[in-house]
Amino acid sequence: RRSATDDEEENIFDAEGPLIDEDEIEEEEKKAKKGVSFASKTTVMNAATNEAHGVYLQYHKHFSDKEGAQKPAEFPMFHRVSKTGVIYATARAREYGFHYEHPEWANMGQGAPETGPLEGAPSRDFSLSIPDEELEYAPVAGLSELREKVAVYYNHLYREGKESKFTAKNVCIVPGGRAGITRTMAALGNTQVGYFCPDYTAYEQALGLFLRINPHALLHRDMNEALMSPEEFEFQAGGSGVGTVLLSNPANPTGQSIEGKNLEEYVRIARDSETCIIMDEFYSHYYYDGTTVDPADGGADDDSNWPKTVSSASYIDDVNRDPIVIINGLTKNWRCPGFRICWIVAPEPIVEMLASAGSFLDGGANAPLQRLSLPLMELDFIRKDTWALQRHFKKKRDYFLKEIRRLGIRVKWEPVSTFYVWADLSGLPPPLNDSLVFLEECVKYKIICVPGVFFDVNPRGIRNIARSKCLDHVRFSYGPPMQNLINGVKNLEELINAW
Question: pTM value?
Answer without folding.
Answer: 0.89
